[in-house]
Input
Amino acid sequence: MTGTRREFLQTAATGLVFVGCDLLAARHARAQARRREVMVNGKRVKTIDVHAHCAVPEALALMNLKLAGPGLRPDLDMATEAGGRLRAMDEQGIDVEALSINPNWYTLDRDLAKQVCAIQNEKLAAVCAANPDRFVAFATVALQHPDLAVEQLEEAVKKHGLRGAGIGGNVGGLEISDRKFDPFWAKAEAMGVPVFIHPQGDGAPAQLGSRLKGNGYLGNVIGNPLETTIALSHLIFEGTLDRHPGLKIIGAHGGGFLPSYSGRSDFGCPTRHDLCPGGTYGPIKKKPTDYLRQMYYDTMVFNPEGVHHLAAAVGPSQLLVGTDYPYPWTRTQVDLILGTPGFSDADRAAILGGNAAKLLGITS
Ligand SMILES: [Zn+2]
Output
């Protein structure tokens, strides 16, 4: 039998004793299940993923929604799918996920929005309490009712131990820089907690729907980063970041297209002063690209050239790991940071987890 000859040769060459196929398979499975411990120059790094989705079925039920299909995937449910998620984290070398829920409650009235967010924040807190070394979470807030969002953020952080808030790139069609939301920004700034901004499907992807039809999943591939680009640009140009200089903003998907073409942001106002009344850059205090360096970004840009450029535009101290789990965009975000040339060991450790640990109050 050919197999016997191969096994004999392997045994002769390596001194290994022959083992049956089933046992080999079991060993392989165990090796896969082992938690990957990420090292930088021989030193263990606690890796933190700031872009990890989940959902709460009880909250969805209040909106007559349920987990099904490729959007509201069943594995968003932490109550039934936490085991699979932990296995994926172990395989990818992710020690901690900062969970968030994509807002789909921005059109709800006050009472229902209050109920939805209350259930979500309680469930998020329970998930984190069950695995405190593996999960932290961003609170959900009813931003369409800013005074309620202020209360929800305070309660979520102080009572439930959540680490900040996750919000959309627009709120029912309003830009997040709208002065209506100033109380929320003031609260997040005063509490010193980060705000994770994720694109909303009802924003740029839907508004450009007819242009993003056809092959390529362009509604997401182009629409989602564009939604973030617009949201972050408004925070800069409408003065939100001037009014709240202590805000800790985290932009999903590498901040969209903003850091990749940031130079242009500095030339709009000087080119058309009539569209930017005020000083050199309109009403804002600093050069637009200076504000880029005070926000944070996940590194979901898929290749080392992208990470390298992002770091050049905003600084390594502003970069964080993000996977978009459970959406299967990537399983190699840790390797992307380890494999991007030009970083010092300290940079790599910071991007893999140190920067996020400071933002989220995660101690080792
Ligand atoms: Zn996402």
